[in-house]
Amino acid sequence: MICPTIRGNETGQPFCPLMTHDQGGCHDGNRAGVRLRRDFPPLSRRRVHLIALNLPRALSTMAKNCRGVVFRRKAHTLTAKQLSIRNLAKRFSGDIHALRSVSFDVEKGEFLVIIGLSGSGKSTLLRCINHLHEPTGGQILLHGQDITRPRTAERRQLRSRVAMIFQQFNLIGRHTVLSNVLMGALGRTGTLKSILGLFSAQERKRALEYLDLVGIADKANIRADRLSGGQQQRVAIARALMQKPEILLADEPVSSLDPATCHVVMDYLKKINRELDITILCNLHFLDLVRRYARRVVALREGILVFEGDPKEIDQEWFRRIYGEETQDVHIE
Amino acid sequence: MSSRPGSRGRRGSGRPNQHGKSSFFTGTRERIRPVTIKQTIFDAICFGYLLTIALAVITGVTEDDVEARLLPESWVVSSFLTAKEEAPKNQLPYAFVVLALTALGASLSIGINRAGFQTLGGFLFESPDKKARLDTEGPAKTWWKTTWGIQTIITFLVTFAAAIVVTEFSLYEIFSSDGFEGARRVFSSLATPNFAILPMAVLAILETIFMAFLATVLAVPAAFILSFFCAKNLMGQTKIGFAVYTFLRALLNITRSIEPLIWAIIFSVWVGIGPFAGMLALMLHTVASLAKLYSELVESIDDGPVDGILATGAGPLQVVWFAVVPQVILPYISFTIYRWDINVRMSTIIGLVGGGGIGTLIMQFQGQARWHEVGTLALVIVLTVWAMDVASAYIREAIK
Questions:
Q1: Does some domain include residue A213?
Q2: Which of A45, A306, B78, B237 might form a disulfide with B12, Cβ 3.0–4.6 angstroms?
């Protein structure tokens, strides 16, 4: 399908900026498209949409009328990518398209940051990956294995491999810090055992080790709601580590923290990314954090992937494309 | 195929970078007030009700007329209620008139909504995302200037007037001297209690308190477990879950809508007159009420911790235990104590129909018009309820 974000050939780029993908073709999944010539006037978005409704015929018509070149990409082969998102779509009831079509790959050990306006689908994307939301279209591959529609037991197993931390920390305030960290082991503990609080001594030791890793082992026996925001987020990180995850999803982990605490939490994320070799997918708002921590950036806008690449490549123009015309880069520090 | 963009597409092509403002996907959709089944049914009942009352006032029908002519004669099998010989034949039964007016109401509702005004039904049954969309259109009116606001006010005023007529509200009766004298006599006897029966009264109130306690304690575990199955946020995800939710909700609503007084009568036939019947009646009602209160607490929990626990790969029971229970346990305890308090008060009433306890005693003395003794019992009840109320307030405050 030809994506509605197309702006004609203003940059001389391929039809859709995401056709630069190695495997995906256009990010809507059709491994074919039309490369426009430089002098072709911009297409209207409605027209593009109409064309997209009947792609095969449209492609040849387009090639004729648009003076472009039809190309087809090779079907993608399974690679050693840890996580592959293919044309992921999520429609909520009431016809709200949170994600229209998003494709990208994540390599093992990567620190990938997802940026975009509020409501651009960043959170939905992360929640689809560990099935807190069920995607309505597309595919998610983990080590080349399709995990888009897991059965109930598979979903639990999947969630314990893909940990998540949240903007609001989502700890259980009435339980102690240690107990909260132990909850990370729920996926591999029997229901009755966990309800009676019978976690093994080994698990307790591990929980304390992770608390030590995020620097709050001394707070282990304090109620979680007594801690400050930054400390709570570190407990959440420890809980996530307790799952022994291979991927950590961080949904705006620092958005409710002050700028100083922000860096503490981000540094811990960086540390576990480097030292424990855990892949991190992180939603962020502030570009200076992105430039400092991200190894790679993808940007969403209205549920569509509009940028993928090195954080240094985001200049003023890209910034405006991602965030809209009126916005300006906000610098904190 | 790409020769010239159509006029609607031009907006997009002319300023290609502006799709932050009017999205390609939502900007061109037209704003029509949708007419849904739910809102039409609601408005039909509302308008039908108003029209019926208006018609009744205009034509001046009486209650007897309605009784005689509500249903077509051929439908009425038993004749002792409605077989008035003077009931005129070949006249339209009132039920059909009401139905016709309701149908008129439905078409009125559709008409008003089509004309672009929002009726009360339209306002109530609007889906949330549409609500959000309509919020952004045009300047907001003060609520009583809107169509649905006017409809609300008219419905309220008409109902108020009808209620005054139906309940035979009369200031004259309150201040008439005969009635006033009788009431004064009863009150003065009540105010001079006969303390000779105090031991009996205390024993009876103890029975009542134990009855209430047992009813509450036995009801709590059942209500606790039921509450999770009656919470929409936990059960609404799957079809089977939703079916269980709907079934249990309906069952509990039926149980709850039958007063404990009626249950006490049923149980006193079943297990015999006495405190046991009263206790069973209270227990049943308590299960239904607590399950509803509890499940509403479960429905209002913060979803964050649930997401947090779900994300660890926890199973459904673990999610309930680790994410839901900690959030609701304090309000649960508080509600339970409050319910015990209610049960003590209610069990005195249960006693009136043979449920045992102090209520039965009141019934005996009141039957003999021994108002001094009734005064003693009333005093004991007042003191107990007061003590319970204070105690439960303190406990609820302490565990907040």
A1: yes
A2: A45
